[in-house]
Amino acid sequence: MNQIVRRALIGAALALLASTSAFAAGKPRVAIQTDKGTIVVELEDKKAPITAANFLAYVDRHRFDGGQFFRANRAKGAPGAGSIQGQPKPYSRRAPPIAHESTLKTGLKHKTGAISMGRDAPGSATADFFICASPQPYLDAKPGKSDAAQGYAVFGYVVSGLDVVKKILSGRTDGPTNVPSMKGQILNPPVKIISVKRV
Which of 12, 43, 83, 89 falls between 20 and 30 A from 162, CA-CA? Predict the structure, then answer.
């Protein structure tokens, strides 16, 4: 083997090793496959480690497979603006609630494509999540001690499939609900989550 060929092979091997290491050190990505298309999100596991790890635990246990996007919360008077909410498959076992990671601490914002945790009181989030089809800064944390002031926990962003998010958001929303604040927001029919897996 001549010296030029040897150098080329060593160079190629080093380039492959470098690209593999960069990929391994990168942010985790997850593909959410639905019956309306696939959404890929990139998780901010360094900025929101508790929330990202919690989501990945559900992903790795396939708890979202067979779940659904059940809610489309559209902004009034702004077509294409709002968010969609997803949940695990029915009767899926949920892990204990996680600590709330405020956007004031993480620096993450509810901008277009943000994926964030649904919750009641801060520290009550388990598995329900939502994806913003448009900027929703009112969901970010603000100085104050009230539940509302603590906002919601962003833990990643859509990197492909925002068109699918908008398609789901535009669905029919006259489904039944026992929650008065969700009236007119329940997808009918809900959008099936076929699988959620790392990519």
Answer: 89
Q: What is the pLDDT of residues 89-133, one digit of tens each?
A: 988 899 999 999 999 999 999 999 999 999 999 999 999 999 999
From residue 44, how far is each of 51, 104, 114, 173 by CA, in Å? 9, 15, 10, 31
**Residue 194 belongs to some domain of the structure:** yes
Rounded distance between C-alpha atoms, residue 108 and residue 113, angstroms: 12
Residue 15 lies in a domain: no
Structural domain tally of the chain?
Answer: 1
User: Cα dist. 142→81, 138, 147, 151, 194 in Å?
Assistant: 22, 9, 10, 7, 36
Q: Which of 155, 107, 148, 151 is nearest to 127 (CA)?
A: 155
List the domain range (segments joined by +) for residue 179. 27-198
Domain-embedded: residue 172: yes
Whole-angstrom distance, CA of residue 95 vs CA of residue 38: 26
Structure tokens at 168: 């789901």
Task: Check if the beta carbon of residue 42 is closer than 8 Å to that of residue 95.
Answer: no
Considering the entire predicted model, what is its pTM? Answer: 0.86
